[in-house]
Design a protein that fits this description.
Helix content: 25-40%
Order of helices and strands: EEHHHEEEH
Largest sheet: 3 strands, antiparallel
Distance between the termini: 42 Å
Strand order of the largest sheet: 3-4-5
CATH architecture of the domain at 34-111: 2-Layer Sandwich
Length: 118
C-alpha cells in the first residue's frame, strides 16, 4: 500500500506556534520556567555537575510532562514520550551524584528533551 501526497502532521505548541515534527523537543520548553530551563542546561552540562538536588530534577521532569510514580523503597518510575526509566532517589543527602545525573541526561535525550540552542 502506497500513500501519495501525505504531509507530515503539524504540531501546535500551547503558544499557538506551529512546529515541525523534527523540532518536537520545543514543545517541552513551553511549560518550563527559567528555573527548569537552567536545571535542564545543568543536566546537559560538561563536566557533569555533582551538586544538583533531586527535587530540582524531579521538577524539571514534571515540567517536561513526565509521569512520575513511586516504586518500592526509594525507586521512582518515570515515563516520558513512551520512554520509561526507574531511578533511585538519593538519600540521606538530597544531592544527586554524577552517575544519576548522567542517567537522567540519557533518559531526557532519548525522550527528545534537550536544551534550547542559542
Amino acid at each position: 500500500m502506497k500513500t501519495v501526497g501525505r504531509t507530515p502532521p503539524t504540531i501546535v505548541s500551547c503558544r499557538g506556534i506551529a512546529l515541525l515534527p523534527e523540532a518536537i523537543y520545543l514543545r517541552y520548553h513551553d511549560a518550563m520556567n527559567r528555573r527548569h530551563r537552567r536545571t535542564l542546561g545543568r543536566v546537559f552540562a560538561e563536566p557533569t555537575p555533582a551538586d544538583l538536588r533531586w527535587t530540582e530534577i524531579e521538577a524539571l521532569l514534571r515540567a517536561a510532562g513526565a509521569e512520575i510514580s513511586e516504586g518500592a523503597g526509594s525507586r521512582v518510575r518515570i515515563a516520558l514520550s513512551d520512554v520509561r526509566a526507574v531511578f533511585h532517589r538519593p538519600h540521606p543527602s538530597p544531592v544527586t551524584g554524577r552517575g544519576l545525573v548522567r542517567a537522567v541526561r540519557d533518559f531526557l535525550a532519548s525522550a527528545g528533551v534537550t536544551p534550547e540552542e542559542e
